[in-house]
Write a structure and sequence with these properties.
There is one protein chain. By secondary structure, this protein is of the alpha/beta class. The chain has a single domain, classed as YbaK/aminoacyl-tRNA synthetase-associated domain (YbaK protein, Alpha-Beta Complex). The protein contains 5 helices and 8 strands; from the N terminus they run αβαββαβαβββαβ.
Amino acid sequence: MTQAAEEDLLNLLDAHGIAVAMHRHPPVHTVEESRTLRGEIAGAHTKNLFVRDSKKRFFLLVLDEDRKVNLKALAARIGARGGLSFGSAEALYEKLGIRPGSVSVFALINDKAGDVTVVLDEELRKAATINGHPLGNEATICVSPDGIDRFLIAVDHPAQWLDLATAE
């Protein structure tokens, strides 16, 4: 699998008229590290959960960093078969071409086979911008919710927007 580079992602976003604000920072691997290093980056900061069901179907859950979600309750709502568990680092790299600590909605640029279903928390639509790593954890890009939708269409991954609060 040939993985897209940050430049490829930024070119795709630009080609689709999706405005981006870029913020460089030291590498961050967790939400906690992100909180201490991100400075004054406005918008919704996300956590991204790469999970799989018992049939080895993969899902990327994108939600506000403070949102709690009950994976057991969510499984049926997103069409998972059986329970959800976290995907391995190997599966993450195989499916999305990234390493742990760099997961974001933008990694779907690498899922050419369409193996990963993306589910975004409806609450994120209220934010002016949604922040995510551009395929590496040394930067954050800020994109509008509409821009996220257009990106997902461009990479052939139509999003499911769900109110994840009902799954808590």
